[in-house]
Amino acid sequence: MKNAAAIRRRLLLTTLLPLVAALLVSWLVGVRLIADRIEGQARTKVRSDLSAAQEIYDGELANLAHRARQLALIPELGRAVQRLSRTDLERILTMAASGFPSSFVSVVDQAGLVRYRLNNPTYTGDSLQHFAPVQVALRGTSAQGTLLLTSQQAQREHPALAASMAIPLQASPHVEADSRSSEQRGLFMVAAAPLHDANGRLLGAVCIGQLLNNNQALVERITRITSPGQATEDGLQQNATLFLHDVRIATTVTDENGQRAIGTRMSAAVASQVLEKGELWHDRAFVLNQRYFAAYQPLRDPDGAIVGALYVGVPEQPFITLRRTLNLTFAGLLLAMTTLGLLLTSRLARQLAQREAEIQAFNRTLEDKVQQRTIELEEKNHQLLRAEKELARSERLAELGMLSAGVAHEINNPLAIIRGNAELLQMELPQQQDSQEEVREILTQVGRINRIVGSLLTLARQERRQISRFPLNPLLDEILDQIDHQIPLEGYSIERSYREQNLQLLADREQLRQVFTNLILNGLQAMEGGGRLTISAGTSQGMQVITVTDSGPGITPEQQQRLFTPFYSTKQHGTGLGLAVSWGIVRNHGGSIEVHSVPGQGSGFAVRLPLVD
Fold first, then answer.
1. Confidence (pLDDT) at 410
2. Nearest to residue 548, comparing CAs of 564, 566, 526, 574?
3. What's the half-sphere exposure (Cβ side, CA atoms, 13 Å) at 325?
């Protein structure tokens, strides 16, 4: 079962995970590409739709100007103006204007004074020079534009307009604060054409105005032309809006109750860019409570002042729904492929587990044999390396021993002469003379040379052993009791942990005394200023082990490699022969010396000697 589970995991990692990773990457890349494509198409569409909406709006202005020119070309209208016949003016304008809808029609004379208003006949004599298209028409050229009129201005042209264009303001999110409760102004398309007599003399002008407040026909026409059937190919609802400043005065946008959002306002972010800076907006924007892909363009009057805006857009929600649908589709595909992969890997795992069990049973014996042979080979290699090292060291010591014997013999004779003459000189010189100090120094150095020669002779005589059987504990006690003759023990703590072991040694007692004395003295000297020295004994792996441990500064790995090399010393005045001699003595007894040390944590020297039967 464990094999089957392991194989199932391996198959899952090697086959299913790459597939899942590929699906995840495809999911992320695919959804992103599709989302970017749909979003890009939506942005492109609203930009092109805004251009189309502007063309439709400009076309409406052109149609209004065409109607003004048609009225101005009626010959009877010019004669009626010349005669100032109100009856003729009323008859002609009523008949001519019945063919096209308009909010007001007015006729002015050369000075711009109103001679007749079709929709307010009793109010005449005031000037329409403040209408920019009228100013242009009185110069002999037709003109049209978008004008913002107050309720008083509109009421003079048509008494019913003030009530028609009033729009109550609705609560709107994401807008600047405004204390107004309604919008009383009106946004008008206004066109004017010059009026001439039969001789071409300028008599005045004809002015026509069309109210845009609540003019749903225009925005519905924009929506029908830019988005036939009220939906795009991607299923995104298209809408359009006319703004008087930031107030929706005509729109196909509906609120949460399904009513046209007349009286709601433009979001503050869009208003800042479109109405204040006069720039286009092609980006996401809040339309009421929803985000839309929107395009806004400012509307300007003939003098260039911004009086409103034209908007087209599509809601973002269908796009979000489409993206969610794509995510769910890819997630379902990923789940299906993962389930299929699990089923396939489980089946393959059972088959492969059986084969693997057979192979493992076949290989287990072979692996055991290979492992056993490898261990044996490694042990042989270690033994060979140790033997090579021991042989090389033994050869060096043997050569050094032969050399030492000759050197010691040659040095002893002149050294004895130097010592004798120095002693005679010391006896002949007065005790208070300054030269006595130099003589004593000569004798001290002669003694040091004597000790070095003695160590060299020890190296040369290592094969000459006097073997006897003796207990270990008394030998160590003697050494420790006499060690204070060589080094003061103030500040040192010596722990004798060997007394519980009654070990018997079969060896040269004096040579081992020299070994243990050297190790104990080295441990004390390593702990400058005091410390703890521990001597312990025991048995391990068929050998007797005597360990000397100090709490000194420790020995670096590089120093450990050379510790038992003759003439190598870490002490300032050492000869470098103590450990080399000790190593040779222990080796000749069939044992070894091992060092264990960590810098900063002290050192331990373990002497391993054969057990005594």
1. 60
2. 526
3. 7
C-alpha 417: how far from chain center: 85
Task: Count the residues in the chain.
Answer: 613
**What pLDDT does residue 264 have?**
94
Amino acid at 449: I
Q: What is the pLDDT of residue 232?
A: 41
Contact 274, 298 (CB under 8 A): yes
Which domains, and CATH codes, for the chain? 1-315 (3.30.450.20), 464-613 (3.30.565.10)
The token pair that represents 142 in the structure block: 């037709």
Shortest CA distance to 425 belongs to which of 444, 411, 438, 416?
438
Tokens of 282: 């092609």
Cα dihedral: 344, 347, 352, 353 (round 10): 130
Asked if residue 457 lies in contact with residue 404, where contact means CB atoms within 8 angstroms, the answer is: yes
3-state helix, strand, coil in the chain (%, to 5): 50, 20, 25
Overall pTM > 0.85 = no
DSSP character string of 377-404 = HHHHHHHHHHHHHHHHHHHHHHHHHHHH
Residue 438: partners with Cβ closer than 8 Å, 6 or more residues away: none
Give the end-to-end CA distance of the chain in Å, rounded to a whole number. 55
Token digits of residue 319: 């796009």
Which of the residues in the chain have pLDDT under 70?
1-17, 19-20, 23, 27, 30-31, 34-35, 229-236, 341-342, 345, 348-349, 352-353, 383, 386-410, 412-413, 415, 434, 447-448, 450-464, 567-576
pLDDT digits (tens, 9 = 90+) for 237-294: 789 999 999 999 999 998 888 899 999 999 999 999 999 999 999 988 888 888 889 9
CA 582 to chain centre: 63
The token duo for 28 is 């992320």
Closest CA to 72 of 138, 128, 127: 138
27 phi and psi, to 5 degrees?
-60, -55
Let me know: does 214 contact 165? Beta carbons within 8 Å: yes
Tokens 């190919």 -> residue: 233
Residue 46 main-chain phi, psi, to 5 deg = -65, -30
pLDDT one-digit tens code per residue, 121-162:
989 999 999 999 999 999 999 999 999 999 999 999 999 998
With vertex at residue 545, the alpha carbon angle to CA 543 and CA 546, rounded to the nearest 5 degrees, is 155
Supply the DSSP string of 403-420, one letter for each residue. HHHHHHHHHHHHHHHHHH
The single-letter DSSP state of residue 121 is T
